[in-house]
From TrEMBL:
Residues 10-116 form the HIT domain. GO terms for molecular function: catalytic activity. This is HIT domain-containing protein. Residues 121-147 are annotated as: Disordered. The active site is at residue 103. GO terms for biological process: nucleotide metabolic process. A motif (Histidine triad motif) lies at residues 101-105. InterPro entries: Histidine_triad_CS, Histidine_triad_HIT, HIT-like, HIT-like_sf.
Length: 147
């Protein structure tokens, strides 16, 4: 489902009700503090309209969302003296997406902060053929269709 959705989506409810702790509210994207932050200043960036994940979000909305992610990250470096950030996003079944509304976690990081947001193992999934070649072929086919 895209665009406006029912209030069954927790993020749509927050956006509609205005009840989040807002860091920024823009036309296409907004930023707010999650309920259980991983670090001081941890921020969620979400499109203001409902899109389930990266697969159904229009490119212009992705651009607006990532532009806000960059602004939030820059503010973390300036205001919180963060030396880096992790930008986390899960989309679709199997990705551990917790809320079915596209969102980006922007987590400020400091050297020796004691957390890791990087996967600790590798996938057990095995894929026939050469995944790199298959991806390259799929991307090139998609590119040629747009010419």
């Amino acid at each position: 489902m895209t665009g406006l959705c029912g209030m069954d989506c927790v993020f749509c409810h927050l956006i509609h009700e205005g009840t989040a702790r807002w860091m920024a509210r823009e036309t296409e994207a907004c930023a707010f503090t999650p309920l259980n932050p991983l670090a001081p200043g941890h921020t969620l960036v979400v499109p203001t309209r409902h899109y389930t994940g990266v697969f159904d979000t229009p490119p212009d909305v992705l651009t607006a969302s990532m532009t806000l992610v960059q602004r939030v990250a820059t503010a973390m470096r300036t205001a919180l003296d963060a030396s880096g950030v992790n930008i986390l996003c899960a989309s679709g079944p199997g990705s551990e997406q917790s809320v079915p509304h596209l969102h980006f976690h922007v987590v400020p990081r400091w050297v020796d902060d004691g957390i890791s947001t990087w996967p600790t193992g590798i996938s057990r999934r095995r894929h026939p053929g050469d995944p790199g070649t298959q991806l390259s072929d799929a991307l090139n086919r998609g590119h040629h269709h747009r010419s």
